[in-house]
Amino acid sequence: MEVGFLGLGIMGKAMATNLLRHGYRVTVWNRTTAKCQDLVALGATVGETPAAIVARCRYTIAMLSDPSAALSVVFDKDGVLEQIGDGKGYIDMSTVDAATSSKISEAVKLKGGAFVEAPVSGSKKPAEDGQLVILAAGDKKLYDEMVPAFDVLGKKSFFLGEIGNGAKMKLVVNMIMGSMMNSLSEGLCLADKSGLSPQTLLDVLDLGAIANPMFKLKGPAMLQGSYSPAFPLKHQQKDMRLALALGDENAVSMPVSAAANEAFKKARSLGLGDLDFSAVYEVVKGAGGSGQA
Ligand SMILES: NC(=O)C1=CN([C@@H]2O[C@H](COP(=O)(O)OP(=O)(O)OC[C@H]3O[C@@H](n4cnc5c(N)ncnc54)[C@H](OP(=O)(O)O)[C@@H]3O)[C@@H](O)[C@H]2O)C=CC1
Ligand SMILES: O=CC(=O)O
């Protein structure tokens, strides 16, 4: 099966690599062309533009940073829309809001193509290991056709119905994750400032009812001040922002998430946006260290 792949960032590179390793023929495009080279070494072909990829491939997957990138790759010159049509499927796995997804879906359908949104839960390592959780919605026939590829990329796919439901589910999940990361950061700080060992706190957490893979994976690195990006902080803040907008639309009060978003915004303003989202710990530590008891 031949698949086009747009966007070779942290996630896209790992996902396209998995498809190649499982025997898919993959044609890749990335805005910064140099990032295609590692994939070419693994057997990928390079397409010159998103439109050229869609012209060549029956199915094209995108994994792009945010709503503006997702829209640009579809609607701009040499974009997906120029070549999408009957018999072609477009699958956007980026984390965006439901309105962005709906706009893309409507445009693709108007041209006779099929569209599935399929954001993923799981970071760089799950992407490398084919262990993502796929939150799909939209055209059910296209979804069914994509299941073999989703099975390569992930450990479980959910089909959530109409367009927008995948985007919303992903935003709810990441809103919870962002709040949890802030809570962990505050806990590590409080342990430290009150004379406890933060490492012992991690050990205690790991044995109790709130043990989770994120605390286990990120906690020790945070204590080392090591924030090599698996999930860039700027993307986590984008997800908090979009989740809060979903809360606005639905009149859901989310003070915990709003506070977490402020911490991520502060981290971005300090130039930490390209680090892992766990770098929000630096902001919390800074606040805790202000000496205002
Ligand atoms: N990293 C993670 O742990 C996870 C991320 N996600 C989501 O997946 C998506 C990708 O994340 P990730 O791979 O980490 O992000 P990266 O920042 O590593 O990659 C972003 C990709 O988007 C491309 N891009 C950005 N702006 C544009 C634009 N205007 N036009 C065309 N291409 C553009 C980049 O191209 P270029 O190389 O030229 O900059 C790059 O290929 C995001 O929506 C993120 O929220 C979901 C689950 C986990
Ligand atoms: O979106 C990030 C993730 O880890 O999932």
TrEMBL record:
Domain of life: Eukaryota
InterPro entries for the chain: 3-OH-isobutyrate_DH-rel_CS, 6-PGluconate_DH-like_C_sf, 6PGD_dom2, 6PGDH_NADP-bd, HIBADH-like_NADP-bd, HIBADH-related, HIBADH-related_NP60_sf, NAD(P)-bd_dom_sf
Tagged with keyword Amino-acid biosynthesis: no
Any one GO MF annotation of this record: glyoxylate reductase (NADPH) activity
Domain 6-phosphogluconate dehydrogenase NADP-binding: from-to ranges: 2-161
Domain 3-hydroxyisobutyrate dehydrogenase-like NAD-binding: 164-283
GO annotations of cellular component type: cytosol
Known catalytic reactions: 4-hydroxybutanoate + NADP(+) = succinate semialdehyde + NADPH + H(+); glycolate + NADP(+) = glyoxylate + NADPH + H(+)
One Pfam family linked to the record: NAD_binding_11
Entry keyword set: NAD, NADP, Oxidoreductase, Stress response
Catalytic residues (UniProt): 170
PANTHER family the UniProt entry points to: GLYOXYLATE_SUCCINIC SEMIALDEHYDE REDUCTASE 1, OXIDOREDUCTASE GLYR1-RELATED
Function: Catalyzes the NADPH-dependent reduction of glyoxylate to glycolate as well as succinic semialdehyde (SSA) to gamma-hydroxybutyrate in vitro. May function in redox homeostasis and play a role in oxidative stress tolerance by detoxifying glyoxylate and SSA generated in glycolate metabolism and GABA metabolism, respectively.
Sequence similarity: Belongs to the HIBADH-related family. NP60 subfamily.
Protein name, per record: Uncharacterized protein
Species the sequence originates in: Panicum virgatum (Blackwell switchgrass)
Lineage of producing organism: Eukaryota, Viridiplantae, Streptophyta, Embryophyta, Tracheophyta
